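WARN retry 2 of 3 for item q-0093 after timeout on previous attempt; input resubmitted unchanged.
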Amino acid sequence: MSHHTVEARDLYHTYPDGTAALRGITFCITHGESVAIVGENGAGKSTLLMHLNGYLAPTGGAVRVGGLPLNRDTLPAVRRAVGMVFQDPDDQLFMPTVFEDVAFGPLNLGLPPGEVEGRVARALETVGMEGLGNRPPYKLSGGEKRAAAIATVLAMEPDILVMDEPSASLDPRSRRRLIELLRSFSHTKIIATHDLDMALDLCERTLVLHEGLVAADGPTRDILRDESILGPCSLEKPLRLQGCPICAPPRATA
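OK item q-0093 returned
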């Protein structure tokens, strides 16, 4: 795959209970873009992300990654290119130690032990967890678990990083470190989040989902200041765009 684009064409997904989570999603994300996926609970954000590396199969439509249609034959190549960080770090941390969790993916690629150790060391250093490789995941703090989960993906050296609510439950310092870390990832980033201030920090483009459809797609700052888009989707302006109610000039009265 020479150009790591992500494309959805008329994507539908209906769960076995009849819930229509995606109802015709179309977009194209080009190599190197940082894109936020926002929307109210139930808008389809997590369902969409799980289609981008084959955790869910479409009911209708198609996904293409790097020009390859995502199907059973291309799934291994797509999963090497697309690294997915789930909303709950415990979904990715299941080995006895952090080192073994981070090494799990590279070992399954069949890489030699020396290269695996190098990848693990680089990934742990990148997320600020060097020296914690022997610690059991259950003894990590929430922020450390999040960092370890990201390290498991970075060790795979993906070209596309997909993250579901990465700042959820993080304290301010851990959130700031996460933002700094994600800024250092130079390839394509796709981030589903309720943290609209983080979207402003990291993403030049935003897709707004509403009831399984793309309600808006454009420059992040333009979308997140537009109340005609945000209001119907149960979203509010990020705090930094709301202004100070005390300092704001008084409204003119009739």
